[in-house]
Amino acid sequence: MNSLLLLIISIAVLVIGYITYGGWLAKQWGVDPSKETPSHTQQDGVDYVPAKAPVLMGHHFASIAGAGPINGPIQAAIFGWLPVLLWILIGGIFFGAVQDFSSIFASIRHKGKSIGHVIEQNVGAKAKKLFLIFAYLTLLLVVAAFASIVVGTFNGFTPEGDIVPANGSTATISVLFIIIAIIFGALVYRKNAPLSVATVVGIIAIIACIAIGLNFPIYLSATTWLILILIYIFVASVTPVWILLQPRDYLNSFLLYGMMIAAVVGIVGSHPAIELPAFTGFQGINGNSSLFPMLFITVACGAISGFHSLVGSGTTSKQLNSEKDAKIIGFGGMLIECALAVISLIAVGILFADGAMPNGTPTQVFATGIASMIAAIGLESAYNVAYAIIILAVSAFCLTSLDTATRLARYMFQEFFIPEGTDPKTLTGFKKVCANPYFATLVTVIIGGIMAAGGYAKIWPLFGSANQLLAALALLAAAAWLGNIGKNNKMFIFPMIFMLIATLSALVITLIKNVVAFSAGTATLSTEGLQILFIVLLIALAIDLAIEGCRVIFGKKKTA
After folding, report:
1. How far apart are CA 128 and CA 365, in angstroms?
2. Which parts pass through the membrane (predicted)?
């Protein structure tokens, strides 16, 4: 299969899906640009801050992307390029984009509140508590996993004590990038600098940061970086969004756009053949996996991700300037991520050789594939620079997802202890302490940090299933709300049921494997034991919540 032909077909399908299905959904749900959004009606200068569509798209896209659309398709490629591609396109348009769009829209129609609040209003108070616990557990997995990944990217030393120049440069550039973002935010939001001028200056500053980082790397140990990163995400979670979150993610998005443009140039210029077979079998190349349900779990953010619903209803909805922006940011943002997933699939596909997948981590495979295509068009000298910048971009998005997840976990923790309709300022005692943003953030950072110290490998196997199960619950919440207000919600039924079945199946498979490992005496409490605990909690919470929601959706129970 020619890589250029595959890319053209994919982009055409995604564009058609956005115009037709995205436009149809907006009409069905009643998107109304004349309605004021919560960023205006509840503007507080901290969380509720109106943002121009390009700026908000940058935040939203940078937050939802992370390493997911790169890691997922590359790992799922063991089943062949065709099933992965079909799931990216079909899942992205009819599952993921529907979830992302509806999560943002449902939230802005509920005063910018979270999906948990939407569930409380349309399913019940018990369901809200169940969802908040489930979402918080999932976010702890996100914080722990991405903190560990970022530490690994910044760690300046090998286990033997040798320095790692690439990691040192990445660390320097990332630190400088944060400083540039703060300056950018001050210029745009406090000095009213034109966005276009500030953007040009910001991009030039990013290039300068890269040049400085490549020449002046910072070498610190993994332990030191973990402490610094935990301090950073604590501060980032409680500061006003205009200071760091909005400007950093907006500028960050240019790294990703640039990376995608470079990939497209490489594909168009070299258009290499995809050596990976179209289909390798239901058990994959290694013979020890299963296409169902693992394909639909592994691709993750490349097709659908529950984390997106938390971003959309947690931060994006509080900054949406107009309801008309919900489609381009929610539906469109997901489809751009699908395009990145297709590029990732092409990268691994062209490196497949001698019946084996390429060596290295998914990020390394992605960087190698893209850099190789760029070199193939006569830019051999640009290989090392392209490789380094791609690694930097992926690392930057992991850091973005990390502090966004921390802020969202803080929202969830606070919301659990604040009764509906109650002003947090009137709370007393234990609830007042737990509703405090600084306390809620501190608890999240400490637990996430402890889990991260053990290495992401111990909790990463659960992230995919928990994340996709969260997507099913977000679809359930939107379906319940639209049904209660008399709008068409049939587009949610099949995606919701399918994701419930797929994710619960994956969790049960993992649970059985861990129990068998304990029986054989090859398991440990810190790894398999921790996984079993999380799996049991996630399954119990999800089933209970699904039952409550289905009673509303299918008419056996009605909310007020």
Report:
1. 41
2. 84-108, 129-151, 171-189, 196-219, 225-245, 254-274, 294-316, 328-353, 382-402, 438-457, 469-485, 492-512, 532-554
Q: Which residues contact 497 (CB under 8 A, 6 or more apart)?
A: none
pLDDT at 539: 92
- C-alpha–C-alpha distance, residues 19 and 38, integer Å: 26
Which burial class, exposed, middle or buried, applies to 421 when counting CB atoms under 10 A from its CB (0-12, 13-18, 19+)?
A: exposed
For the chain, which residues make up each domain, given as ranges?
Answer: 3-155+220-554
Confidence of residue 547 (pLDDT cuts 50, 70, 90): very high
Tell me the per-residue pLDDT of 105-124, one tens digit each, with 9 for 90 and over.
999 999 998 898 899 999 99
Q: Report helix, strand and coil shares of the chain as percent, to nearest 5.
A: 75, 0, 25
Sign of CA dihedral 57, 59, 62, 68: negative
- Residue 16 CB contacts under 8 Å (≥ 6 apart), including other chains: none
Residue (of 393, 460, 395) closest to 152 by Cα position: 395
**pTM of structure:** 0.88
Q: Which CATH superfamily is domain 3-155+220-554 in?
A: Amino acid/polyamine transporter I (1.20.1740.10)
Omega before 419 within 30 of 0, i.e. cis = no
What is the average pLDDT across 118-135? 90
Beta bridge partners of 420: none
Kindly report, residue by residue over 263-287, the tens digit of the pLDDT.
Answer: 899 999 999 999 999 999 999 987 7
Q: In this structure, what are the phi and psi dihedrals at residue 509, rounded to the nearest 5 degrees?
A: -60, -45
Residue pair 318/112 in contact (Cβ under 8 Å)? The answer is yes
